[in-house]
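Input:
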Amino acid sequence: MQAQEIYNKLEKQFPGKVGLFRGDFFDPCLNVDAGAIVDVCRYLRDDPETAFEVLSDLTAIDWTKKDDEKIQVVYHLFSYTKRHQIVLKADLPREAPRIATVEGVWKAANWFEREVFDLFGVDFIGHSDLRRIMLPEDWIGHPLRKDYVEQEEYDGISTQRAPLVDKLLR
Amino acid sequence: MGEAVYPESEVFHTEDMTISVGPQHPSTHGVLRFVVRTDGEVIGEAIPDVGYLHRSIEKIGEKCTYHGYVPYTDRADYLAAMFANQGFCMAAEKLGATEVTRRGEFCRVIACELNRIASHLISVGTFGQDIGAITPFLHALRERETINDLMEEICGARLTYNYIRIGGVGYDITQETCDKILVFLDHFDPIVDEYNRLLSYNKIYIERLANVAAITKEEAFQYNLVGPNLRASGVKWDIRRDIPYSVYPELEFEVPVGHGEKGTIGDCYDRYWVRMQELQESSKIVRQCLKMMPKGPAISKVPRKFKPPAGEVYVRVEAPRGDMGYYVVSDGTEYPYRVRIRTGSFTAMAIIDKLSRGIMVADLIALIASLDVDAPEIDR
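Output:
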């Protein structure tokens, strides 16, 4: 199925909830209203024409452009049987981003969402095990955010060193 | 000294045991840790604890130029660095509409497939070692050593290659090296049979693996398993064949899938057996490439200031641990806005908790080995 057809199908099924279709991208993508993400995902998985049985990737992007600040959660859906793919995007506010988990649709989302929670600070509502995955539990901040500043020390150990090169070259 | 107090109940009291496996256990591939709750020998749950090798490779990508980031991708999966290079370079080339020379493509495929043999040798070798067979590991590493030597001759490095660059490859493969690769392959092909006699058809080995932790096709989809792990569950899917890239459409090779060779489809033995067959397929691919390799430049002219237009791309390559995805977002500057590396081990690791319920402790080790998880690739 072509990406345009998938989009038309979604627009009919979820009027007002999907938009901003970009068919000119290398991987055509569309925006989904954050509140409807679980319904859209479940529909795309269960409909025999789309049959997206796999969540290839789930990640996020931190956009800090002025007047367009947002955390964008990106879902790469893939179908082995139909051999097509689509990219869904959900825009969340940078302050306290929250979105429902799609763990119930694809189990793979469990760990993907934990990673996004850890590195971007997105809260996935209804997630069964929302803990940090890469960093220690007591780490401060979310490193993949553009405005992230590393804490000066962790557990009494400095995370920064003055470069020795400056002293040696003096 | 007080008097000993015995419980009133006659029933012998038992309780679950919580064991920490790792992070430096030899059978955990790299540094990863499991918190295992067991009832005697039977596992209640095995919760993976990852992140020990997290190096923020994705964040580093935002601070490097496109050219400058290529050596970092090596570190995403140091057992199969060539594929990590290729994935990122293909993403950058697609964004920047950069041509790759034809000879460059062949050099890439030769280097990649040699790397796949090396990576699979580690996989099947450590598989044997994990469940108690030391000899096959040494045999596997002996052959891998030759590949490392060949790689050193091709690009100067034995592990983290930085060989594939945007637009082609860093160094051309000389005729002399080509001859050496052919000598190696002639030597290697019969050795696969030797491994089979030593390991694959070994009764003890088969009984340790057959019918252990079988993964159905539906489970594999749910957890997004990729590569050999997916194929072992009976899904005939290979990015090289199904979403072709580079010169793979011109090459002939089989895609081995699991048939329940010694037990059920998708059990540990199937995952092992798929990799053994892929060794031979890779060897076939390299032979074809050596014959077909055209003359010409190995790299096209790429501006030093590589500035792809704004846009985004998701590129898949078939790495030894399956579909490796690079999601690169460009905002039109010299630096990528976001680099996301999706790796096969990450999703494979997530399925272990589910599969481990109700199996024996010894089978957990076989399960981890059969999924061929690789800590640097999980944590990035």
